[in-house]
Every structure is written in C-alpha cells, then in structure tokens.
Specification:
The protein is α+β, with helices and mostly antiparallel strands and 98 residues long. It has 3 helices and 4 strands, in the order H-E-H-E-E-H-E. It has a 4-stranded antiparallel sheet with strand order 2-3-1-4, covered by helices on one side. A hairpin with a 4-residue loop joins strand 2 and strand 3. Helix 2 packs across helix 3. The relative contact order is 0.21. The mean pLDDT is 86. Bound molecules: copper (II) ion (CU).
Length: 98
Amino acid sequence: MKNLKNSIAAVVATIALTAPAWASPKTVTLNVSGMTCEACPITVKKALRKVPGVSKIDVLYEKKQVVVTFDDSKTNADELVKATTNAGYPSQPEQPKK
Ligand SMILES: [Cu+2]
C-alpha cells in the first residue's frame, strides 16, 4: 500500500512539472524609438495585432517600448520586429538583463 501511494505521488509530481511547458505564452519588450507622438502607438499596435499568435500588446509610450505577449509556436520576436518595421517603426527586442 505504501508503494502504491509513492507511485501516485511520483505521477502527480511528473504531471505538475511537465504540464505547463507547452502552453506558456512568451513576452518580449520591443524598443520602438520612432514613437514620437501619441498617435504612433496606435499604428504600432495595429501592426502587431495582425501577427498571428499575438495575444496582448502593452504600449509604454513614455519609455518608447511595446510589451508583446505571444504564442511562441505561432510567431517569434523576429516576426514582431518585422511587423513594426513594415508599419514604419523599426524596433529592437530588449536584451534580457542577466
Ligand atoms: Cu506619431
């Protein structure tokens, strides 16, 4: 009986460790230096919303940054940069500080 309990615990632990791995959305911060007036973020947002897999766009106008949440099985940071660049706003993904 003790063995059964232990193996159930092991299975539960394995599920808990592996389950969230495939569904976690990624977030990238893009530096968009060309956002010089308050109308710019609207254009940038519009462009990013067209990218498949993008679920959330937060514009930090003061910092000239856009925080994009996306599904990394559908798109990636390069595609997001391409989208803003094509809309007239070249951007760079912020390097994560380590
Ligand atoms: Cu503007």
